[in-house]
């Protein structure tokens, strides 16, 4: 019991709670339950109305007779930026310092408002040197403070935080032994696709589409009755296959909700295969809140033409005694994974750490005792220092002699650094002479031929690698169709949806704004890397090139 924790994942609609082992290789699910997330719990990543959440959490803990009060929260937010980076092979206690020193290269944000966290992915070799490959996060400080406050109000001891992308992979790497597979996490409003090869994460993408549209379509149909809530509908869909309903209209609405999911999963797998010749997916591993929907595995298998199953993960977590009721381990997988090896977050600021050290050092000693201790310590130090001083003096003399004898090495090292700097300048200049931006012409032609006339393209930003479109349409369904059309362009090799926001205007007219990044076929991007760039980075790069061209003229 002493080593158990509560892992809590707070979603937009549902909150999952698991009692499991903390930092062990083979964790178990002792107790688990879910409840509907109260409205207005968070407002712009800060804590708002917390009392309804506390009441529902306390009720669930009491119902399942859970006494554990140590907690680990799982973070999932579109405001968390993630990047894979490679750094020199340094001591572990220097990694964080190195990341902050080079933070401007990874994230174009104000680091005073963010905390950097990381996970060591692998050790790689570049140019004959051993280096670290890391997954690095930039998490808003106010988000971390909100979860710390939430734990305090709920009378929980916050022992750690973890990122949803890291939490799931802990158990995938341990329990799935296939050489190459795609792991798909189906949640209410998001779908996360992770490509794993030989137990290493090769690619991870998250899209703003989940099973919420499907569940809402079932609710609207009235198939399970009127006024049935989200979680009740999900429970019934786990027992009855709604994909085989006789009503064609209802079945079409449900299938339409799945198209965005299957389209994005297929697109990510095709993108990976196109950049890795001969790489063939063996299967798809399914988990998350939507993994237990009846008929889901068969439907995705037919759509993706690959075996789809979550059985390996189910078998890894058999139901423990005392965990009564319906049991869905695939829904709680990220909660369990968060307790295995959380990412390295700092839950205390420098001021709190300094105060604790000060309290620790405040040991009461009587004045007479203190004086006696000082005298004894002084005598011991004096006797130890005198012979040691003579030894150091001899050592210094020896080192000075060696330095004068090997002065020529310093001169050669200086010449080497000068030559290396000149070489790097020439190499960078050569790289800048090669660029490919011919893709924009063919892309514009295809855009005029294939896009509907009623869409509004609010802005276009193009680089040698890709073109970014800011588009406004009337609905999510129209947005999905446009993304599917773009993915079929001959001038484009990959399409990524960066953001999607549905808005209702003052005149009660709804519209959807979303941003897509289309990668050119034959662009100058390195096809073997998965690093991404933000819009700010693209704009800064374009402005710099324009300034260089003006100076040249």
TrEMBL record:
This protein's encoding gene: pilM
InterPro entries listed in its UniProt record: FtsA/MreB, PilM
Domain of life: Bacteria
Organism whose genome encodes this protein: Maccoyibacter intestinihominis
UniProt keyword terms in alphabetical order: Coiled coil, Membrane, Transmembrane, Transmembrane helix
Chain segments annotated as transmembrane: 370-391
Parts forming coiled coils: 399-436
Stretches the record annotates as Disordered: 525-553
Protein known as: Pilus assembly protein PilM
């Amino acid at each position: 019991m002493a080593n158990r924790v509560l892992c809590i994942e707070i979603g937009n609609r549902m909150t999952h709670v698991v009692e499991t082992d903390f930092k062990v290789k083979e964790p178990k699910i002792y107790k688990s339950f879910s409840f509907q997330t109260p409205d207005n719990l968070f407002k712009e990543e800060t804590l708002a109305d917390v009392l309804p959440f506390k009441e529902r959490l306390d009720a669930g803990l009491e119902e399942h007779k859970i006494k554990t009060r140590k907690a680990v929260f799982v973070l999932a937010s579109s405001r968390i930026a993630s990047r894979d980076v490679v750094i020199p092979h340094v001591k572990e206690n220097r990694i964080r310092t190195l990341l902050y020193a080079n933070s401007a290269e990874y994230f174009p944000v104000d680091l005073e408002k963010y905390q950097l966290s990381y996970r060591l992915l692998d050790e790689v070799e570049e140019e004959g040197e051993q280096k670290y490959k890391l997954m690095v996060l930039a998490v808003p400080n106010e988000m971390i403070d909100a979860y710390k406050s939430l734990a305090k109000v709920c009378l929980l001891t916050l022992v750690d935080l973890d990122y949803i992308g890291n939490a799931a992979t802990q158990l995938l790497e341990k329990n799935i032994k296939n050489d190459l597979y795609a792991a798909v996490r189906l949640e209410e409003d998001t779908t996360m696709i992770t490509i794993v090869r030989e137990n290493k994460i090769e690619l991870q993408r998250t899209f703003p589409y989940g099973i919420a549209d499907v569940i809402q379509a079932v609710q609207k149909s009235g198939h399970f009755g009127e006024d049935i809530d989200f979680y009740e509908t999900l429970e019934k869909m786990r027992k009855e296959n709604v994909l085989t309903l006789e009503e064609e209209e209802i079945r079409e609405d449900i299938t339409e909700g799945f198209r965005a999911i299957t389209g994005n999963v297929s697109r990510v797998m095709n993108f990976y295969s196109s950049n890795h010749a001969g790489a063939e997916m063996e299967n798809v591993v399914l988990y998350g809140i939507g993994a237990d929907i009846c008929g889901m595995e068969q439907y995705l298998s037919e759509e993706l033409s690959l075996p789809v199953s979550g059985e390996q993960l189910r078998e890894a977590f058999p139901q423990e005694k005392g965990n009564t009721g319906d049991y869905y381990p695939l829904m709680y997988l990220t909660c369990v994974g968060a307790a295995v090896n959380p990412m390295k977050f700092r839950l205390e600021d420098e001021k709190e750490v300094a105060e604790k050290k000060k309290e620790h050092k405040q040991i009461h000693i009587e004045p007479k005792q203190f004086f006696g201790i000082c005298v004894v310590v002084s005598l011991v130090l004096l006797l130890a220092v005198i012979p040691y001083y003579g030894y150091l003096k001899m050592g210094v003399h020896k080192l000075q002699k060696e330095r004068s004898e090997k002065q020529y090495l310093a001169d050669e090292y200086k010449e080497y650094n000068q030559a290396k700097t000149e070489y790097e300048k020439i190499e960078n200049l050569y790289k800048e002479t090669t660029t490919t931006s011919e893709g924009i012409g063919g892309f514009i032609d295809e855009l005029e031929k294939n896009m509907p006339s009623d869409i509004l393209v609010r802005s276009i930003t193009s680089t040698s690698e890709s073109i970014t479109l800011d588009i406004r349409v009337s609905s999510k369904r129209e947005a999905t169709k446009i993304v599917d059309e773009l993915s079929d362009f001959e001038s484009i090799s990959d399409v990524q949806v960066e953001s999607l926001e549905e808005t209702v205007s003052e005149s009660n007219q709804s519209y959807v704004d979303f941003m897509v990044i289309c990668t050119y076929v034959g662009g100058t991007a390195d096809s073997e890397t998965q690093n991404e760039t933000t819009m700010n980075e693209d704009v800064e790069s374009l402005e710099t090139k324009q300034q260089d061209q003006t100076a040249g003229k």
